[in-house]
Amino acid sequence: MARLLRCQKMSVCYPGGETQVRALQDVSFHVHEREFLSIVGPSGCGKTTLLRVIAGLLPASSGGVEFFDQPGDDDPGLTPMVFQENSLFPWMNVLQNAAFGLEMRKVSRGEREDRAAAMLARFGLAGRERAWPHQLSRGMKQRVAIVRAFLTGSPILLMDEPFAALDCQSRMMAQRELLDFWQQDRRTVIFVTHDVEEAIFLSDRILVLSQSPGTVIAEYDVPLARPRDLLDASEIVLDLKYRIFATLKLTTEASIAAYAR
After folding, report:
1. Do residues 73 and 182 share a domain?
2. Is the four-CA dihedral 218, 219, 223, 224 of positive or negative sign?
3. pLDDT tens column, 220-245
4. Per the CB 3.0–4.6 Å rule, which of 127, 190, 214, 246 could disulfide with 45?
5. CATH, residue 26
């Protein structure tokens, strides 16, 4: 598969009184076209900051992101992002929220509503098109946000722990819905999560970030055929979970030891 983007020695610093706070340090990795890439790491290691730089919402202090040419991609620097807490517009109904990206692309009202309604139905939201965001459950809101992201037409989707606020059953359903649709669409996804099992279930590849300032310390391929079973407890899954948790444990212990000194 062709490369779609590359992060090259990306660092991000925030003002912090008399000194700067470094959130990311020399982050380098690439993402392939049609790949599902997950990023895991300790809290505060810069995962969300990384997505914001890729989305064009935040500048890098040094290094940066290189996008490779993609047919039909008018503006690769502006990439849709699905946040942990839904970002639906409260003054728009479900259909209007879902079709917002199409509206920004000047798609006619009839076409964008037809496309949005069809996508909502595929995500189990048929009959909710005229509902308001406050009338939906958290899981439904996140599904609308995901539909909106897919409908932008961007070759890359960024997801920042989109299912973290859901209960266990809703989260499992949302993971399955996302994966089922992704396997038909094969849009490139960069997915941030604290849940190692979620990363394994969804991903082709997993990056592990260190403690702050975050940098890539490990990369794991997920050698599982698709479609996948959410309850898979095979030796491959257990071994991969062990290796990722061991890597996270090492970076945490190194951070504690450095702080103690």
Report:
1. yes
2. positive
3. 999 988 888 767 778 888 999 999 99
4. 214
5. 3.40.50.300
Q: Residue with structure tokens 């939906």?
A: 136
User: Which residues touch 209 (CB under 8 Å, ≥6 apart)?
Assistant: 27, 39, 40, 41, 42, 45, 46, 47, 50, 215, 216, 217
Number of domains in the chain: 2
pLDDT digits (tens, 9 = 90+) for 161-170: 988 888 888 8
The range of the structural domain enclosing residue 124 comes to 85-153
Q: What is the pTM of this model?
A: 0.88
Residue 98 exposure: Cα atoms within 13 Å on the Cβ side: 30
CA–CA distances in Å: residue 195 to residues 175, 241, 252, 254: 12, 10, 16, 21
